Amino acid sequence: MTGLATEGLPASLRGEGQPGFALFEGFAAPERVEAMLDGVIGIARAAAEGRDVAPAFVMRESQEGFSGENPEDLVSKVFRLHRSGPFRRFLADPRVGEILGAAIGPDVDCFLSQFIFKNPGAWGQPWHQDSYYFPFEPARPVVGLWLAVTEATLDNGCLHVLPESQMEPLHPHVPDPRPRSLYGYTEIVDHDMSESQPCLLSPGDLLVFDSHLMHRSTDNVADGFRAAMVWHLAGAGTVDRGIELPDGSRRASPVHDWMPVLRGGDVVPAEES
Ligand SMILES: O=C(O)CCC(=O)C(=O)O
C-alpha cells in the first residue's frame, strides 16, 4: 500500500458527474523535479551544439521575436523523454503504478512524453481534447499525467480544465488561427467553456486527467518560465493507427514511442540510465 487515495480514480476520471481529473498535491519531491529540469536543459543545450540527442526531439518556439541567452529560452517542447533518466524513473514509482492501475488497468504503456517550457511571451495551447491527437483502438482509457515543474499561475499560463467535459464525445478541432502558432495546435470552438477552472499548482503537484477532458493553457505574460513534464499512457495492446496523410494513407507519429510501464499490476523497473 502506498497510502494514495486512488480507489475512486476511474470514476473521477470518466464517470458521470465526476470532474474528469484528479490532483495529487506534493506528489514529486523537489529533487526529482529539479533533476527533470536539469536533464531537459542539458538536452536543449546539447541539441543547440549540434549533438545527437535522439531519441529526444527538441521543438523550438515558432512565434516571432523569441530571444534569450540560453538555448532553452527558445525551446517550446522536448519530446520522447520517457525511456531515460528521471523521466523514466518517475514511471517506475509504485505510487505512479497505483494511479495507472486504477485509471487504466494492470497492463499499461507510456506512448508519449513531453517537457513543456513555457518561456515568457509563449502562447498557450488552445482548448482541446487529447484524444483528438490519439487515433487509437480502443480510444480509451488514455490518461495524461501533468507534473508541475515550476509554479503554474494565471500569469505564467497554467492549465484550465472544464470539469465533466470528459463525458463529451470528441469535438471538431479547427486550426489555431494565430500566425506561426505551434505545430499541431488546434482548437475546439463549438462548446461553452465558461465553467472552466484554472489549475494553480506548485512544483511537484501532479494532475491526472482523462483524454476527453477539455483543457487549454493560457499565454505566459509573466517574467519567468512555466514548465511542466507530461506523460500520456494507455492500455498495453492499444492499436495506434498513426497520422492520416492528405492522400488517406497513414504513418506512425514521430513522437509516439510505446513502452511498457505496468505489467500484471506491477511497475516495470527502470534500468539505471
Ligand atoms: O501545459 C501546457 O501548456 C499544455 C499541455 C496540454 O494541454 C497537454 O499536455 O495536453
Characterization of this structure:
The protein is an alpha+beta fold. Strand 17 and strand 18 form a beta hairpin. It has a single domain, classed as Jelly Rolls, CATH 2.60.120. It is globular. 15% of the residues lie in helices and 27% in strands. Strands 1, 2, 3, 4, 6, 11, 13, 17 and 18 form a nine-stranded antiparallel sheet that branches. A three-stranded antiparallel sheet has the order 10-7-12, with no helix packed on it. It has a two-stranded antiparallel sheet with strand order 5-14. The two termini are 27 Å apart. It has four helices and 18 strands. Helix 2 runs antiparallel to helix 3. The site of 2-oxoglutaric acid has 11 residues, from strand 4, strand 12 and strand 13. 2-oxoglutaric acid binds next to strand 4, strand 12 and strand 13.
Overview features:
9-stranded antiparallel beta sheet; Jelly Rolls; 27% strand; 273 residues; 3-stranded antiparallel beta sheet; 4 helices; single chain; alpha+beta; binds 2-oxoglutaric acid
Alpha-beta classification: alpha+beta
Largest sheet: 9 strands, antiparallel
What value does the average pLDDT take?
94
Task: Evaluate the radius of gyration.
Answer: 18 Å
Number of strands: 18
Under CATH, the topology can be stated as Jelly Rolls
What is the CATH C level class, in words?
A: Mainly Beta
Listed once per kind, the bound small molecules are:
2-oxoglutaric acid
Beta-strand content: 25-35%
Number of distinct helices: 4
In the residues, how many domains can be counted? 1
Q: What's the CATH superfamily, by name? A: q2cbj1_9rhob like domain
Distance between the termini: 27 Å
Helix content: 10-25%
Identify the overall geometry.
Answer: globular
Q: Could you say what the CATH architecture is?
A: Sandwich
Which spans of ≥5 residues are poorly predicted at pLDDT below 50?
none
SSE order in H/E notation? HEHEEHHEEEEEEEEEEEEEEE
